[in-house]
């Protein structure tokens, strides 16, 4: 596969991943589909870091647009364009890593929820067999919002998976960009 085609493949694969990251992060602001938790400040701390919106979203979407252009004949589909795609892909790697770290922390610390009378992160200090990820009986500690543990697990897990794929694809593009810079893009001009 030539470097231009590889760039198009990477970019097309990054588009839905960036959109999924943005949607997951936005949905995390509304546990139980209710805006009152966000208005009252009762959302998980890692959601406020906006790893999916900024890291896995914008910081991956902008490089994907440029990387897509390097796969086409024209101003960006040359050796210089491929060289710049290395820098853009590095931004994508940084964004994907930021999203990955925030999602991992969100999974490790668990959700902010109401336990009896106070809002707290009840699973933050639990380790070993008492970890809420291993023991679903602990999930009943959270009384409000309803099903918040499953909500956070699903969305932070999705962010974790998409950010891993983003990092891998952007790293592939960095290598592809290096080959394209050294060897050319092999884009043929059609007459």
Automatic annotation (TrEMBL):
Entry's family note: Belongs to the L6 tetraspanin family.
PANTHER family in the cross-refs: SI:CH211-137I24.10, TRANSMEMBRANE 4 L6 FAMILY MEMBER 1-RELATED
Protein name as catalogued: Transmembrane 4 L6 family member 5-like
Record's keyword terms, sorted: Membrane, Transmembrane, Transmembrane helix
Keyword hit for Transit peptide: no
Keyword Transmembrane belongs to the record: yes
Main location: membrane
Source organism: Pundamilia nyererei
Transmembrane segments: 12-30, 50-69, 81-107, 148-172
Family matches, as InterPro entries: L6_membrane
Lipid bilayer topology: Multi-pass membrane protein
Localization: Membrane
Pfam families for the chain: L6_membrane
Lineage top rank: taxon: Eukaryota
GO cellular component: a single term: membrane
């Amino acid at each position: 596969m030539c470097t231009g085609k590889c760039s198009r493949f990477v970019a097309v694969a990054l588009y839905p991943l960036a959109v999924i990251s943005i949607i997951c992060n936005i949905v995390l602001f509304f546990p139980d589909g209710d805006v009152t938790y966000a208005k009252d400040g009762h959302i998980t701390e890692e959601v406020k870091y906006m790893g999916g919106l900024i890291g896995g979203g914008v910081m991956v979407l902008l490089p994907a647009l440029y990387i897509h252009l390097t796969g086409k004949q024209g101003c960006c589909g040359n050796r210089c364009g491929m060289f710049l795609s290395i820098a853009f892909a590095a931004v994508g790697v940084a964004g994907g890593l930021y999203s990955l770290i925030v999602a991992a922390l969100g999974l490790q610390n668990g959700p902010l929820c109401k336990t009896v009378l106070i809002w707290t992160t009840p699973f933050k200090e639990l380790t070993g067999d008492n970890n809420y990820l291993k023991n679903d009986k602990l999930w009943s500690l959270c009384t409000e919002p309803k099903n918040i543990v499953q909500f956070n697990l699903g969305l932070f897990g999705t962010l974790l998976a998409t950010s891993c794929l983003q990092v891998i694809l952007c790293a592939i593009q960095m290598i592809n960009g290096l080959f394209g810079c050294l060897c050319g893009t092999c884009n043929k001009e059609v007459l």
